[in-house]
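#struct-pred

JT: dropping the chains for the assembly here, can someone run the whole complex?
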Amino acid sequence: MKRAVGQISILIWKDLLTEVRTKDLFGGMFVFAVLTIVTFNFAFDLTGVNRAPSGSGALWVAFNFAGMLGLGRSIALERDRGSLDGLLLCPVDRGTIYLGKFVGNFLFITLVEVISVPIFAALFNINVFQLSLLLVLLLGTVGFAAVGTLLAVMAASTRSREVMLPVLMFPILLPVVIATVRATTLILTGQTADLGPWLNLLGAYDLLFLLIAYVVFERVVEE
Amino acid sequence: MAINRPRSARKSNGGMMLGLLAGVTLAIGLYLGLVYAPEDAVQGNAQRIFYIHVPMAWVAFLAFFVVFCAGIMFLWKRDPIWDQIARSSAEIGLVFTTLVLLTGSFWGRPIWGTWWTWDARLTTTLLLWFIYLSYFMLRAYAGERDRAARFSAVIGIIGFIDVPIIYMSVDWWRTLHPGPVFTSSGAAMPNSMLLAMLVCLLGFTLLYAYLMVLKFGIEQSKDKLLDYQYALAEREAEGAVTA
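RK: done, full complex below.
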């Protein structure tokens, strides 16, 4: 157990160090997320009275797109540099490698979200600074990264991987999209009392899919 | 080749019997549904599409359950036979899901006044359709046979487990977000309608079994053909080296 935690933290450290040195992921994801939010302003009127419900939708679509971009990129980089093969040769349990990649991806997406949310709030004059929103962001991103990491590894070893990842991810992630958008709308409109079922749904989804992905990852990467 | 012939002939005999049985049961079921059962008091004759719509939905879910089980067995045992079963069943499931969506729309137009509504059952079926469409896209893009089998087994497992969660989330989304919600008339059916429905259910299940036998045979032959092609290419390569 202690050993696995040590291995996971080394894997995360590797991802963070690579990112600090190459700056391949974060910048692109962040600009993309903010641009999506800005573009949504022209698709729906996000300045009107109804801006809270449409705003939460725009916010999560932006996070989904940016996250998808980041996931695809992060695994593609691993593959192109041959570092995924290197990882698989290490005397480390395959499930541990999955968890390491999962936490790495989770951190990057969360970072993008944490910086984009205040910008979103400033642009559309919506008060977002509530602790419950942080919880929704965390639970939603865990589910996204748990399923996304597994599917991105699969998509990366197919032809036309840029197409394959969203096609695989969007239908399977639908519960996360619904739950996060509804929960965020409830928070932005001040109905925090009804949050319970959505948080439970997200929590259950996260646990279930982390477990399944952890178990099947070994079968996905064996070549 | 000559040795194989009697075995495959016997196999197709069993399949023929199953097909014949499915055909006869479906014919009886359709007669019961279209002629014998009374016209629905509220929906009129449009209701009769239920006798094929509901059994096809049942076959679609049954097919994806088989994909799920075969996926687990494949990842566990690594026997290609499980993948052949999974991909046969997935294809039949995708065809039936398409038909379910279409027949549902045909019924919805006169009864609900709209082709489509974002109700939990409809949305879940649509998502199910997308998941198994991505299953086949993944297979097509995966390249190598073994990789395609492993990846699609994972999608078959995740996709099936996801279905009840999708249903639940869409259901809550609907109830918390009021709109034109429709519920199908769950009132007690007269016995003649129930009989027609049960015969049709049996008929479509037999049809699924028959299609499975056919499709499984095709998939096995495909794999065998690939093996021969590999062996031939290897032998040619060896010949080129020695020459």
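JT: nice. The first helix of chain B runs from residue 4 to 36. The interface with chain A takes residues 75, 127, 130-131, 133-134, 137-138, 141-143, 147, 150-151, 153-155, 157-159, 161-162, 165-166, 168-170, 172-173, 176-177 of chain B (CB under 8 Å).
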